[in-house]
């Protein structure tokens, strides 16, 4: 098991550090927050006080470097890795993948790199909010684009599995489109709903019950964190917003002209059933040959089918594909 | 305490029957569902096997008649009340108020009527899903339009208080606008979100976490029930949809042109804080003189401020107005 050097010890980076140690790995990290560093050291972790020291140790020990800083800090971290630990395998846990891949190709094309994104979070942030269990049972995307180095993919996937997650292999583009639809669009719609409910005086809020509470919950998150997440994925979020605008406009038009919301509500109900069906589906085991020439396609296919890699052997990945029951129910 | 005759024994009507009996009232009902009637009788309730028999008993005993049928059945029930129990006070528990008021004015203008809408529900429906506790702590709108008979308003409000709810007085128009924003729009947005997430293949759903699950939860409700609720309030839902479309379009435009979602997300965050703030606010006690010439205005003002009536005395209503703390927090 490779040692792990985590650059950035917020909620996600701090949880990776804890989970990797719990899995038996040697770990250390770096954070620019003196306060987080002090607390992490008090929790028994080695936290270097400058990034070059952490990366020097990574180079000496052939560690996996995990970039866990916000997107705006990515470029400066990549530049330090190229100088201090150019031969270490590298992954990241940033919530968009296309812009990360672009930055790596531009600033550090020689790195052995595969991008990652664990689909887990909390409303709190910072080292104190993290835990070794944060990723248990969660999906953890590890991108497998055509150019992805398979050794880097495997190293990043092993970290995800060690952290208790399952690995969803897909491309950076497909990842960004998917999270725009199921993570970023929900935040925008929740904000719109909260404003429509609140901006005409107190009466609507006084009558609000479960549907409004659920529909606006994520509007309670800190707007600056939501902005960073959504705005960083603007190229994928714009088409998702257009999709939503088109469907909402069609609902409005149908209600005005025919009095019916049948098409809108039936499609939404099917979508919700598909979500439930996928989460409750049986899983078909499939084996991916990691030595095959079309391995990138095979991995991408697992993700495209809603599947996941649950174990890695020497030359194979054991994956599971959902056999959704929802098609039979509708 | 007036006896209570409930016409329609689904989730809401059946819960009113139970709650009114639990409050010590004589109660009986009617349902066209032979199965629900049999179960209700087995539960110890008097359930007449035709609507005229139930209304005859109401006329004999000067009971309050509660209309708890779906909107499409309202007209036929009103016609029977006019014939069989024309002097009984009447209220309803249908989820729109403007169309109900129109039907009463058209078909039964001589009735002593005030409309009602308890803001409580469950995803299950029918007699079996009801309970005497369904309305505990819930808001129960009783409309107080300029033409509303104050005696009818008081009788309907006393039923709501007996059922454990608090009474929100407002106009039919303001009620319908409010529920369009906080109950019907959430269903349409949940449907749109579920479809955007589900209609491009399994990957997005495989990555979906809390924000998508919360944002699509009500899309799991039975579409025909959601349709009846939303389509019956089309005149108020259309402007709410336009408000949402305008805000979503503005978000899209800002993201495309400036890369920023700040205005959208800040407004949504303020709305969510206003919801939390209103629900956690301190309450200022105010007394409404039910004999004053401007009593309708005074009652409407309670609702417009997000307030509620919590007790009725001989000539006064004790109300509470929220003193929101959220203004100080922002």
Automatic annotation (TrEMBL), chains A, B:
UniProt keyword Transcription, yes or no: no
GO molecular function terms attached to this record: NAD+ binding; prephenate dehydrogenase (NAD+) activity; prephenate dehydrogenase (NADP+) activity
Domain Prephenate/arogenate dehydrogenase: 2-286
Keywords of the record: Oxidoreductase
Any one GO biological process: tyrosine biosynthetic process
Pfam short name (any one): PDH_N
NCBIfam families: PRK06545.1-6
Family under the similarity heading: Belongs to the prephenate/arogenate dehydrogenase family.
Protein name in UniProt: Prephenate dehydrogenase
Species of the source: Labedaea rhizosphaerae
